[in-house]
């Protein structure tokens, strides 16, 4: 199922483009498009949901953040981010790409099995419309000077987004419940989901989010996406740090992002940059990075068990975070999923 087909993004800082969009698609701003799933599309979704994104180079030759969202909006209402229940379902980083080189596209693959249950849930589908948000915040200013054919363009990337799943005849008996804890605002890069200089503590940085469950939930899992940014010397982007996740003041997960070789993504980084340079680099070089330009950001699944109705807290702590020169941020999106 193709939701967005070769949709064109524009420079995020510029006035919103007035170029035509496909039927059913809404351009919220230059970096965000949304579209509602039709009833027929939802009816066709089975188990083992998968999402595939393809980004094609145009006139942004830098590494940028891309994101995909689901927004649950009351049945029949117009799209409104502020009134929706929003969850980020995928994040990726674009490569440094030159649209004039042979390799112009980069694929990203996500397994979203848990969201099959959400989209198949009869109660949710009876009460909500499900919208898909597709965002790539790009800037064409450097490419206008550095990439042939971009001198007068504020276009950044083309994007294609598809979902697929396996047939399912399972009849669900329990109602799925989603609780959004934190997400990167679609219509702007707000700081409400960040760890940054304002969250600095004596031992790093932390953020606590209180929540109240109106009903008890069974088999709850926390889905978390985090990525560190800040390219200044000793910036958070280049320093891997321990992340601790607490729920109700109990440590539930501890991990250190990154540490993988980025060599498999060299083929997509066709614009000269100061990350990949000209030839293959050893693992010891890549081990300092939190993520790779051209790769997905991992979705971490953390089991919480059954939760009682009432008040709870979610906390993320990043040990020794510095935010040198007051710059950089660690962007965290999180939601809970369980059954009633």
Describe what you observe in this structure.
By secondary structure, this protein is mostly beta strands. 8% of the residues lie in helices and 45% in strands. It folds into two domains: 1-173, Jelly Rolls; 174-257 and 298-340, Jelly Rolls. The protein has helices spanning 39-43, 113-120, 122-127, 143-146, 283-286; strands at 2-10, 25-29, 32-36, 47-57, 65-74, 85-93, 105-111, 128-136, 155-166, 176-182, 194-195, 200-201, 204-213, 217-229, 243-247, 250-255, 296-297, 300-307, 310-319, 329-339. The protein has a six-stranded antiparallel β-sheet. Strands 10, 11, 14, 18 and 20 form a five-stranded antiparallel β-sheet that branches. β15 (243-247) and β16 (250-255) form a beta hairpin. The longest helix is centred in the middle third of the chain and has 8 residues, at 113-120. It is globular. The model has no long low-confidence stretch (mean pLDDT 93).
Domain module tally: 2
- CATH fold descriptor of the largest domain: Jelly Rolls
List the strand order in the largest sheet: 2-3-8-5-6-17
Question: How many β-strand runs?
Answer: 20
Q: What's the N-to-C terminus distance?
A: 30 Å
Helix-strand category = mainly beta
Rg calculated over all Cα atoms: 20 Å
Beta-strand share of residues:
over 45%
CATH architecture of the largest domain: Sandwich
Number of DSSP helical runs: 5
Instruction: Extract low-pLDDT stretches.
Output: none
CATH class of the largest domain: Mainly Beta
| Major pleated sheet | 6 strands, antiparallel
Order of helices and strands, N to C?
EEEHEEEEHHEHEEEEEEEEHEEEE
- The backbone outline, from C-alpha atoms, is globular
Mean pLDDT: 93
Share of helix among residues?
A: under 10%
């Amino acid at each position: 199922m193709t939701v967005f087909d070769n949709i064109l993004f524009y420079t995020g800082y510029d006035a919103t483009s007035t170029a035509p969009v496909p039927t059913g698609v809404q351009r919220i701003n230059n970096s965000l498009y949304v579209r509602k799933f039709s009833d027929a599309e939802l009816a066709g979704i089975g188990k083992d949901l998968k999402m595939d994104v393809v980004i094609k180079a145009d006139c942004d030759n830098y590494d940028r953040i891309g994101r995909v969202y689901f927004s649950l909006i009351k049945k029949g209402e117009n799209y409104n981010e502020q009134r929706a229940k929003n969850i980020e379902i995928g994040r990726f980083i674009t490569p440094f790409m030159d649209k004039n080189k042979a390799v112009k596209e980069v694929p990203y693959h996500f397994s979203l099995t848990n969201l099959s249950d959400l989209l198949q849930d009869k109660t949710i589908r009876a009460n909500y419309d499900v919208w898909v948000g597709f965002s790539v915040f790009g800037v064409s200013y450097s490419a206008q000077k550095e990439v042939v054919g971009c001198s007068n363009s504020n276009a950044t990337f083309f994007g294609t987004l598809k979902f697929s799943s396996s047939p399912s005849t399972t009849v669900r008996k329990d109602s799925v419940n989603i609780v959004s804890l934190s997400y990167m605002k679609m219509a702007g890069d707000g700081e409400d989901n960040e760890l940054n200089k304002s969250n600095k503590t004596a031992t790093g940085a932390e953020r606590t989010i209180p929540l109240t469950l109106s009903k008890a939930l069974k088999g709850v899992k926390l889905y978390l996406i985090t990525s560190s940014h800040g390219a200044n010397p000793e910036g958070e982007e280049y320093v891997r740090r321990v992340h601790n996740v607490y729920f109700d003041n109990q440590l539930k997960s501890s991990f250190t992002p990154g540490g993988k070789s980025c060599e498999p993504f060299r083929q997509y980084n066709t614009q000269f940059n100061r990350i990949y340079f000209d030839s293959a680099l050893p693992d010891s070089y890549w081990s300092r990075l939190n993520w790779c330009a051209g790769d997905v950001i991992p979705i971490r699944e953390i089991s919480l068990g059954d939760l009682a109705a009432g008040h709870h807290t979610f906390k993320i702590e990043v040990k020794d975070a510095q935010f040198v020169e007051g710059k950089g941020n660690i962007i965290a999106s999180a939601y809970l999923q369980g059954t009633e």
